[in-house]
Design goal:
Layout: E1 4-11, E2 15-22, E3 28-35, E4 57-58, H1 60-75, E5 79-87, E6 92-95, H2 102-105, E7 114-115, H3 123-132, H4 149-159, H5 161-166, E8 169-172, H6 173-182, E9 187-188, H7 189-196, E10 219-220, E11 225-228, H8 231-237, E12 244-246, E13 249-250, H9 251-254, E14 266-271, E15 275-281, E16 293-296, E17 304-310, H10 314-323, H11 330-341, E18 352-354, E19 372-374, H12 382-406, E20 413-417, H13 419-423, H14 425-435, E21 439-442, H15 447-459, H16 466-473, E22 478-481, H17 485-502, H18 505-516, H19 521-533
Parallel strand pairs: 1-5, 5-12, 5-13, 9-10, 14-20
Antiparallel strand pairs: 1-2, 2-3, 4-7, 6-8, 11-12, 14-15, 15-17, 16-17, 18-19, 21-22
Length: 534
């Protein structure tokens, strides 16, 4: 009997990862990771074109290069039944009507590139949309974030009308990649609902961005086939078999079936570069104030999924260890900081921080907010600060949980997943202490890519649905982390301080003022002269 396999692709912020699973047994056979050639472009394009402050772009060509490398490494010479795909969101891009990325045609135009989820420059356009309002905001707490598709479309239309005129499509990068792999434009309901405010009853929002509706298309619910891998891509990768490609899924959502989260009452925290919290429910109820959005059939079929998140999570910790290294490399610095921070008791550092290094998603949906560290003295150490940053991330997570509980949602189970959850036991323990709840960490490698593979299996009808896909391919064991009563009590006052700071309009106004500060041309010229002299 010929062995058959399925592949899951996980497109993150800095790299893509793929995993190969035995279609019959669910065993993980191999994995492969490919970094993006141009990484995240925040200072300039590859040709040296400078980028303004708060920009974050990527090159669509890097996604194709990663796909060819990963699919070839995992699938060459093998019979592949299905391919699933998770992608970081919202990361939309303008293309021609046939799917050609405009960055290929206008390589020196910043607005022609993928606007990564952490591109913060579109926030003023989100603010303007929010001020106008509309029924499409009803399931999104009355406001959009600058991270999402609509404000990014508005930004291009206003600042680069020639690029907008050349764009036959404006499309999430995950949907675009499915298009490239299959030759068919088949968009995902998950991206459309959560990042472009699509509803089956009303379609996409109208009158928000001129010409936007013609650049979009009707989406399909998750677990749907987007077509089979094209002949051109079979030749590039050496893949044979049906190779059914599922519609793309938001990367934090795609993990759900891999970690056993396919039932009502489960809250999953996907702790990556940013963090997303997903609550599943069989019944619809109004969106709790501050929670970002809700949709059905965009994450797990036949369930409503409520979404909330933190714009910075692992990103914030990585910034700190890079800025203040303690070891020979980033991994060693993390080990040292974690080991020493584990020896501190709650409150012993006399610090409290706001975790808004990439802006705030919940409850404020404001990309122009920034981080805060309060309580510094000449006795403060780097380890004190590192511990305060971890605690701030956990306080942000508790804010999400509190908002759900105020909305009368019953959380029966908390699951934390991703590399951070698996590799940072200090973070997991502090999370349990701050939440005052048992948290579970699934024992499964490459969970996001495995979740994508399950979506592919559902699309190819290798399994009857997500429940069977979870049973065959998902995590089989979980590690439970129990809250420590003394630590939970100690964190109550620190959490109150966190909430007082986050609720302070004065603090937020100062952050907005700081975000508006521009470096003068004279200062920039002086800096360049200094560099040339050096």
């Amino acid at each position: 009997m010929i062995a058959t396999y399925i592949i899951g692709l996980d497109y993150g912020t800095g790299s893509a990862r793929g995993v190969l699973l035995d279609a019959a047994t669910g065993e993980q056979i191999a994995s492969h990771t490919q970094a993006y050639r141009h990484d995240v472009m925040t200072q300039s394009l590859a040709d040296g074109t400078p980028l303004p402050r708060s920009w974050a772009l990527q090159n669509a060509a890097d996604y194709l290069e990663a796909a060819e490398e990963i699919l070839g490494a995992l699938g060459r010479g093998r019979v592949i039944e299905s391919i699933g795909l998770g992608f970081s969101a919202s990361s939309p891009m303008p293309t021609t009507s046939d799917g050609t990325a405009l960055s290929e045609l206008y390589p020196g135009e910043p607005h022609a590139y993928v606007k990564l989820w952490k591109h913060r420059a579109a926030q003023p356009y989100a603010d303007a949309i929010n001020r106008r309002g509309g029924a499409f905001l009803r399931n999104f707490g009355g406001k959009l974030s600058g991270e999402w598709l609509l404000p990014k479309a508005a930004e291009i239309a206003d600042e680069a009308p020639h690029i907008w005129a050349a764009a036959g499509r404006f499309i999430e990068s995950g949907d675009w990649l499915v298009w490239q792999l299959t030759g068919s434009e088949v968009r995902s309901l998950g991206f459309a609902a959560y990042k472009a405010q699509y509803s089956e009853a009303e379609g996409y929002p109208q009158g928000v961005v001129p010409g936007l509706s013609e650049r979009l298309s009707v989406p399909h619910r998750i677990g749907t086939s987007g077509g089979s891998l094209s002949e051109a891509w079979r030749a590039r990768t050496g893949i044979s078999g049906r190779a059914v490609v599922a519609v793309a899924v938001i990367d934090s959502h795609v993990v759900l079936p891999a970690v056993g989260a396919v039932s009502s009452g489960c809250l999953v925290g996907a702790l990556g570069t940013s963090a997303v919290y997903l609550f599943l429910s069989e019944q619809f109820r109004p969106l709790p104030p501050g929670i970002e959005g809700v949709a059905k059939d965009g994450s797990v079929r036949d369930l409503w999924c409520y979404e909330a998140g933190q714009a910075g999570f692992g990103d914030m910790l990585a910034w700190f260890v890079r800025a203040f290294p303690r070891g020979a490399d980033e991994a060693e610095s993390f080990r040292i900081y974690n080991r020493e921070a584990a020896g501190l008791e709650p409150g012993a550092n006399h610090l409290v921080a706001l975790d808004w290094w990439n802006g705030n998603r919940v409850p404020l949906a404001d990309s122009n907010l920034s981080g805060l560290l309060l309580g510094l003295t000449t006795e403060t150490t780097g380890v004190d600060i590192y511990r305060a940053l971890i605690e701030a991330l956990c306080f942000g997570a508790r804010t999400v949980v509190d908002l759900f509980e105020v909305g009368d949602f019953t959380i029966d189970r908390v699951i934390l997943t991703s590399g951070l959850a698996q590799n940072n036991p200090l973070l997991v323990q502090i999370m349990a202490d701050v939440l005052g709840r048992v948290v579970e960490v699934p024992s499964i490698a490459h969970a996001t890519a495995v979740g994508a593979a399950v979506h592919g299996a559902v699309a190819a009808e290798l399994v009857s649905g997500f429940a069977e896909g979870t049973a065959r391919f998902g995590a089989r064991t979980f590690t439970a982390c129990n809250p420590r009563r003394e630590s939970t009590a100690a964190y109550q006052s620190l959490y109150r301080n966190y909430r007082q700071l986050s609720d302070s309009r004065t603090v937020r106004n100062v952050m907005h003022d700081l975000a508006r500060v521009e470096t003068s041309p004279l200062a920039s010229q002086s800096t360049e002269e200094t560099k040339s002299v050096a």
